[in-house]
Amino acid sequence: LRAQVVVPLIEEDEIIGFLVLGAKRSGDPYFSNDADLLTTLANQAAVAVRNAQTHARVVQVNEEMRKVLETIESGVVAVGPRGRITLFNRAAEQLTGASAQAARGQSPECLPSPLGSALQATAVDGQPRSQLEFSLPDAAGQLVPLMCSTSPLRGPDGAPLGAVAVLADMSR
Fold first, then answer.
1. Is there a contact between 120 and 109 (Cβ–Cβ < 8 Å)?
2. 124-153 b/e with 16+ CB inside 10 Å = b?
3. pLDDT digits (tens, 9 = 90+) for 16-41
4. DSSP 8-state symbol, 72
5. DSSP readout, 109-161?
6. Is residue 36 exposed (0-12), middle (13-18) or buried (19+ Cβ within 10 Å)?
7. How many helices and strands (H and E) does the chain possess?
8. pLDDT lower than 70: segments of the chain
9. What are the φ/ψ torsions at residue 144 (nearest 5 degrees)?
10. Total Cβ atoms within 10 A of residue 39
11. Going by C-beta distance under 8 Å and a sequence separation of 6 or more, which residues neighbour residue 107?
């Protein structure tokens, strides 16, 4: 490589790459102030590389989660910390007759009862609700028996972040 300087990119005591430099165009040698600058640059580059790797992993995990939520037969509805619907999968659309596009960003009150009220109550009080049974009409007007369970969503510190409801079609 005809390298004159090699500086490791270190993140959390792990070498994740190298900064490799050839001769200066001026022909001058590298001095200690150059080494200090290159070390700072290498430290910042290591953080940037790690952030890029972490971002790529988050994107991958989100895509996997989206695929799972869109293929399962259970309806999944989530409410975020602002009390608005943040997630509404395809099965939830089919089971409730509500449009995901219309539901996202709305209060759970826009959902059929008792789904909306159970989801909102769990988001407020942090208490799960299990095996709530109710019926909703399908596209043909026939009542479909559903079972719903809600759970609170909490952050790593235990702080409330919202709630999630899972709906199952009991007629199958």
1. yes
2. eeeeebeebebebeeeeeeebebebbbbbb
3. 999 999 999 999 999 999 999 999 99
4. S
5. GGSPTTHHHHHHHHHHH---EEEEEEEEE-TTS-EEEEEEEEEEEE-TTS-EE
6. exposed
7. 4, 7
8. none
9. -110, 120
10. 14
11. 83, 84, 85, 116, 120
How many C-beta atoms lie closer than 10 Å to residue 154's C-beta?
Answer: 13
CA distance 165 to 152: 9
DSSP letter, residue 3: -
Which amino acid belongs to residue 35?
A: A
Q: Rounded to an integer, what distance in angstroms lies between the CA atom of residue 125 and that of residue 78?
A: 15
Closest CA to 131 of 116, 118, 142, 143: 118
63 class by beta-carbon count within 10 Å (0-12 exposed, 13-18 middle, 19+ buried): exposed
Q: State the pLDDT at residue 64.
A: 95
SS3 call for 36: helix
Determine if the peptide bond prior to 108 is cis (ω within 30°): no
Residue 74 DSSP one-character state? S
Considering all CA atoms of the chain, what is the largest pairwise distance in Å, rounded to the nearest integer? 84
Alpha-carbon gap, residue 20 to 26, rounded angstroms: 17
d(CA 74, CA 92): 7
